[in-house]
Amino acid sequence: PKIHDKHDEL
Amino acid sequence: MNVFRLVGDLSHLLAIIILLLKIWKTRSCAGVSGKSQILFSLVFITRYLDLFTNFISVYNSVMKIIYLVTSLGTVYLMYFKFKATYDSNHDTFRIEFLVVPVGGLSFLVNHDFTPLEILWTFSIYLESVAILPQLFMISKTGEAETITSHYLFALGSYRALYIVNWVYRYYTEGFFDLIAIVAGCVQTILYCDFFYLYITKVLKGKQLKLPA
Fold first, then answer.
1. How far from A9 is each of B83, B115, B133, B150, B211, CA to CA, in Å?
2. CB–CB of B64 and A10 under 8 A?
3. DSSP for B90-141, written as a single string
4. B120: which chain A residues are within 8 Å (Cβ-Cβ)?
5. What ranges do the domains of chain B cover?
6. Where are the transmembrane segments (chain B) (predicted)?
7. Which residues contact B138 (CB under 8 A, 6 or more apart)?
8. What is the DSSP letter of B82?
């Protein structure tokens, strides 16, 4: 998974 | 961002605010598990280290900071300002039984063996079980104040909405994160018993009391 997605969620 | 995510985030925020207001207005943290609140603070501290490494959006950063500050504020109120009202006799869950296995698991099952990634994984696993001291406390005393049950309902709804968000994201973006999904489902399942009591009792105007 893209690293962006994980940090996007709280 | 989709509507389930947004409502989930707001529900999470509402939960934290309900708890803070309850403590502040009644000048008392009776019936609230300080151990759960410490665990939630630990969850936010270990997860939001990404504030320093990944900028996503203003919304994202602001919400992370609000969650951090409000959860640390709750711990401060419980352990310092209103410490005299803290019901430590009933808050006897041993948190090392959660933190140690969760720490071990986050070393073993993660996406990437790097410090930040392990801490992120730790925060996800820990969040899934962080409510247990609170539920344990309620089972010990056999009851919860109505305001505390509203808090728990908002907190449980947040994770349930995140599951819907993940289903939606899977179909629209092809995105899924197995660690977050499994932990999120575990977390939501822990609330099911409480949801049942909340709907059958609290919503009908009764106090939440466990059957003897």
1. 33, 19, 25, 24, 38
2. yes
3. T----THHHHHHHHHHHHHS-SS-SHHHHHHHHHHHHHHHTTHHHHHHHHHH
4. 6
5. 3-85+93-203
6. 65-82, 94-113, 119-138, 174-199
7. B31, B144, B148, B208, B210
8. T
B176 close to A (CB below 8 A): yes
- Of A5, A7, A10, nearest to B63 by CB-CB distance is A10
Per-residue pLDDT of chain B in tens (212 residues, 90 and over written 9) = 899 999 999 999 999 999 999 999 999 999 999 999 999 999 999 999 999 998 999 999 999 999 999 999 999 999 999 999 999 999 999 999 999 999 999 999 999 999 999 999 999 999 999 999 999 999 999 999 999 999 999 999 999 999 999 999 999 988 889 999 999 999 999 999 999 999 999 999 999 998 87
Amino acid at B202: V
Query: How far, in Å, CA of B210 to CA of B194, rounded?
Result: 10
Distance, in Å, from the CA atom of B83 to the CA atom of B79, rounded to the nearest integer, reads 5
CB atoms A6 and B177 under 8 Å = yes
Which chain A positions have a beta carbon within 8 Å of B9's beta carbon?
10
Q: Is B143 near chain A, with CB under 8 Å? A: no
Q: Which tokens in the block code for residue B126? A: 């820990």
- Residue B211, class by beta-carbon neighbours within 10 Å (0-12 exposed, 13-18 middle, 19+ buried)? exposed
List chain B residues with CB under 8 Å of A4. 54, 56
Minimal Cα distance from B163: which residue of A?
A9
